[in-house]
Amino acid sequence: MRMVPLSIARPDYAATGHPSSRFSANVVKNADQISRMRTACLAAREVLDEICVLVAPGVTTETIDEACHEAYLARGGYPSTLNYHGYPKSLCTSVNEVICHGIPDSRALREGDIVNLDVTIFLDGMHGDCSATYLVGEVDAVSRRLVEVTHESLWRGIGAIVPGQPINVVGRAIQRCAEAADFGVVRAFVGHGIGEVFHMEPSVPHFYDPDARATMRPGMTFTIEPMITMGAWRHDTWKDGWTAVTVDRRRTAQFEHTVLVTDDGVDVLTAGPDEVASWRDRLAAAEQLAGGSAPR
Ligand code: MF3
Ligand code: CO
Ligand code: CO
To answer: Where on the phi/psi map is residue 271: left (φ > 0), alpha (ψ -120 to 50), or beta?
Structure first.
């Protein structure tokens, strides 16, 4: 297992593999918690931006994991995934038909692959979690569209956040976007509340779930991380107990942000300013074309 200097503060599961209960932290954060969430999320963004430049044909996912591990430590952070329920690495690398939780290994990326890098850092007592799917060299048109639609579906979900509304409006927006493009939405893995605890309440489905009625309240922090498939949305798990793949082995993509519900909307804690501005503009333009108000 990769080493973490003793000077770096660890989450409770670092030694045992067992995190405290998902109900053990408060869902609505106070000002101090929010400020520490901003720190962790900004660092997660920086780490992802730093390691994504390594994506290229011939590079192994283990090499990217090593760089990621060092990038967390350089910021004084702990790699949240390391020993989380026994997970062995500092990063998740999910290639092609892998939906999520791909374990970095000695397989080299190949021209035409798509790969999701999922970064989570524990810093200042909080977890910050984000991911994106990257193209390896020249990629076929359908895969490029899958990646594009997946990214759009994330921002549609973010755009649906309104304090006071039930959380299922997020999944409804994501599902509409994905299914309009004839893609599938993975049901088994969902977004999650996040803070002192890596995965906590509320649960954030990426499809319309009438039972997901938790009310979005200012001060809540959670992730949205849609996994969108070219074909079937059901999954199999490899014998390693982690790697989730599509049952039909067709490709799947994922993007993830950690968000904060504010008094009048949302703050995307893991997004750079450029990404926020460009998606706000694109979605506003799409709304105007449709001649209606925001799709909720
Ligand atoms: N970062 C992943 C998420 O988005 C969780 C990975 S947990 C692991 O929630 F143990 F699989 F690494
Ligand atoms: Co993640
Ligand atoms: Co997450």
So the answer is: beta
